[in-house]
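Subject: sequence -> structure tokens, single chain

Hey, anyone have a minute? Need the predicted structure for the following. Not urgent.
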Amino acid sequence: MGARVTAEHQEKLLLLGLQTAHLIHDWNNILTLLQAQCAELPPSEAASNLAASLAEATALPRQLLQYLRSDQEPHSLVVLDNWLRFVKSEFGQLLGARIRLRLDDGAPGATILVDPHQLRNALLNLLMNARAAMDDSGEIVLATSVEASAVVLRVSDNGRGMDESVRSRLFEPFFSTGTDSQRTGLGLSSVKAFLEAHQGTIDVASVPGEGTTFTLLFPAAA
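Reply:
Had a minute. Here:
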């Protein structure tokens, strides 16, 4: 009886996953159309903010797919400093004109073994979280270093920060304070899952009124 119930449960989960995948496909088609139309708008702060919001909306279905899929994308050797220099311009545009994105690349040649697509999604989640915490204006710093056998990426903002009651629950799935400036939801939970899947860790330090720093540690690739 127990085995039959388990099989039925697995079948329902499979069906739910397939239905969700179809919905995500349709959602992405709509977002692609909106992004194309947004690209035709005259340059302005409003257009930049709209592009950033669409980028965040695009990341949400990708998070769901990461939870649903059972297989892993192929991992690649990524020279972290080089990769960050490559994506910095793209992320800077998504964040908007009022946010400065600065790169302090202190790990020349340091290589990690990751799924680059998931790495991009994880960093986008952290950047959008920082953007919201700064009320869309401020500075975000991406700083890299090598510590012992780990390659370290720190994502720091000068936003509102958070108290211990928020910080301690930050990586809980769907946790939210109910305010835009400290919204977390599925995003940060998926970032933690990404790090754990790559044998890494993530930690956060924050002080109200002084900003927040997320510290990501990846095993250095041989």
